[in-house]
Amino acid sequence: MTTEEQVLERIERARRRKARVREELVTLAHGAGGKATRTLIEAVFLEAFRNPLLEPLADGAVAGGLAFTTDSYVVTPLFFPGGDIGDLAVNGTVNDLAMCGARPSYLSAAFILEEGFPIADLRRITATMAAAARAAGVDIVTGDTKVVQRGKADGCYITTAGVGTVAPEVRLSASACEPGDAVIVSGPIGEHGVTVMLARGELDIEADLVSDTAPLNGLTAALLDACDAGQVRCLRDATRGGVATVLNEMAEASGTAMILDEDAIPVRPAVRGACELLGIDPLYVACEGRMVAVVGGRSAGAAMEALRGHPLGAGAAVIGRVGEDPPGLVLLRTAFGGTRIVDVLVGDPLPRIC
Amino acid sequence: MTTEEQVLERIERARRRKARVREELVTLAHGAGGKATRTLIEAVFLEAFRNPLLEPLADGAVAGGLAFTTDSYVVTPLFFPGGDIGDLAVNGTVNDLAMCGARPSYLSAAFILEEGFPIADLRRITATMAAAARAAGVDIVTGDTKVVQRGKADGCYITTAGVGTVAPEVRLSASACEPGDAVIVSGPIGEHGVTVMLARGELDIEADLVSDTAPLNGLTAALLDACDAGQVRCLRDATRGGVATVLNEMAEASGTAMILDEDAIPVRPAVRGACELLGIDPLYVACEGRMVAVVGGRSAGAAMEALRGHPLGAGAAVIGRVGEDPPGLVLLRTAFGGTRIVDVLVGDPLPRIC
C-alpha cells in the first residue's frame, strides 16, 4: 500500500467513526493500549458510560479544578530492575494526574492478592509504594484489600486512583495541537518495556537496563511554569503503546500531522539492540517515566530549557513538529531520507508491561 | 471461657495494640473483612503508608470537604440474582462515599479482564454499571483496562474509586459513638452474601432471595437532613464481615459497648434458614445495600422516621443501644434471655462475596 492509499484508508476509517468490537472474546491486544484497546474503550465503555468528562478519553478527567484518574497494574514479573509493581502503581497514577496539568494530592490503593502470596513480598511492594509516594509528594489515604483463591490472580494486582488540583489557566488537550508546535520527548524511550520484557528471563538477551519508572509531576510543573499560558498544548506519558500510540491519538484528535525525525528520537543503544532482537520498534515500547509534550513554537526553547534543567528531563529532545498534512497521521522521516507512516499499535508485542 | 475472661482477654489484646501478621502467606481470611484483614491492613498497609487521613481506616478519606474512596470487586459468580459485579462495583463505592457523609460526584472504573472473557458479558456488566451510576446520580468519568492471560484472573475484576463532597458540618467517626446512642440497621441483613453463596450452586439449598445491592446516598442524605447536627455519629455499610464486624470496629474505636437485642435484628426467614444450613450467623454476612447508623438518642426518633420514609430504609430497625460496659465489645441479648459476646469475624466463611 502506498502512503497515499494509507492516508485515504485512514481518513475513511475516521469517517466510519463508530467503533465496533469485532471479536467475541477479550484478547491480550485489548489490553495493549493500541488500536484494539481504543476500539474496546469507545465501543463498550464510552458507549455505556458516555458523559462530557469521559468523552475526551484522556489520562484523567478534569472538572472544577479537580483532576481524577485511575489505573490497574498487572505487570509481570512483579519485581524488575529499577522498580516493582509498587512504585509503578504510584508513579503511573501520579503521572496521569501530571499529564492533566494537575498537582497530585491524594492516592488510593486497592490490592487484589492471590491466596498464598508471600507477606514478605507484599511488604517489599508497600515499602516501594511508600517511597514513591514520598518522592512524588502525595499521600496514600484510602485503600482496599481483596484475596482470591490460588490460580485466580498472578500474585498481586494493584489499582491506584488519584486526585489532584488543576490551576484554572491550565487547559491541556490532545485536540489543542497546532501546526508549528514542537513535539518533545522528555528522555530516551522504551527503557521500561524492554527492562520488564528481559526480566521475564524468557529471552536469551542480557542488557544493562533499568526501568525508567519515575514521578513526572515535578517535571510537568517546571514545564508549565516556564512556558507562556496556553503554549503547552498537550502532555501524555508514553506508557502502553509507546510514543507512537500517544502521537497517533494527538494527531487524530487535533486533525494535524505529527512529523518526526528518526535521528532526533533518543533511544539508548541497549534498548535499540534489544528491540532489534525482539523485532519491535522502540516507538511502540512503554516508558513509565517519559512524556511527550507538544508545545507552541514560541515557547519551545523555554520548554526545552526547563525540561533539561530537571533531573528527569536531562535527556529531553525535540523529535519533530506538528504539521498540517496528512491530517491525523504520524510520519517518520527516516535516517535514510525516506518517509514512513507510524501507525497505531496493532496486537500486543509486550503484554503486561504495566 | 466466661464472658468476663473474654473481656479481659480483649482488653489485653487492645493493650498490645501493635498488629502483627503471623502468617507468612496471604490467606483467604486476609480478604474476608474481619480480624485477619484488619491485622494485615494495620501491620502492612498502615505501617507503610501512615498519614493522618489514612489512620482512621474508615470507608474513605475525608479532607478539605472532599471524600475519596476505592474498592476492588472480585465477586463470584459475576452475575447473581438481583445484580452483578457491575452494579456492585458502582453501589459499593457510592456507599463508601455516602458512609463518609459525602455526596458522591465522580467514579472511576478500572477493569482487569481475563483473556477469553466474553465481550457480551462485558457489555452486560457495563450496562448495569451505567444504570447503577444513573440511579446514584454519579458519572463514571475515567477508567482503565488491563488484560491478563487465561488462568491469571477469574473473568473480570473491577476496581472503582469515587470522589464526593462533604458538607462542613458533617463529621462522622467510629470514635464518636456515645453511651445512650441508638444502633440502627437500615433493613433486613445478610441478603447479598447468602444470595451470592447460593448462586454458586455448590449447595443444595434453594431460596427466594435477591441481593440487596443498592446505592445508599439518597438514604444517608435523608438521614443527615432529618437529624440535629452532630447527632449522626457514624455510618457504615455492612459489607464483608457483616453487621457484627462493623459494630466491633465502632465499639473498639469509641471505647463503648454495643448492646444488641437479638429479637430486634431484622433477618428474612430465607436468610435465616440458609444461614442455619450453612452454619453461619447472619450478623457476619455481607449486605451491599444496608447500613449501620449510630445516632444520638435525641435524634433517634427523627432518624427512624427519615429512614422508614425512604424506599431503601423501609425495613429499618433499632437493634440496640450504645452502652458503657464492657468497653470495646459487642454484646447480644439473645431471644432466650442470655447474653453472648459477638466477636470480630475470624476466618472466611463466605469468600469473594463482593
TrEMBL record, chains A, B:
Q: Output the SUPFAM superfamilies linked to this UniProt entry.
A: PurM C-terminal domain-like (SSF56042), PurM N-terminal domain-like (SSF55326)
All residue ranges annotated as the PurM-like N-terminal domain in the record: 64-166
Q: Name one Pfam family in it.
A: AIRS
- PurM-like C-terminal domain boundaries: 178-326
Q: Which InterPro entries match?
A: HypE, PurM-like_C_dom, PurM-like_C_sf, PurM-like_N, PurM-like_N_sf
Q: Which family does it belong to?
A: Belongs to the HypE family.
Q: What is the protein name stated in its UniProt record? A: Hydrogenase expression/formation protein HypE
Q: What is the lineage of its organism?
A: Bacteria, Bacillati, Actinomycetota, Actinomycetes, Streptosporangiales
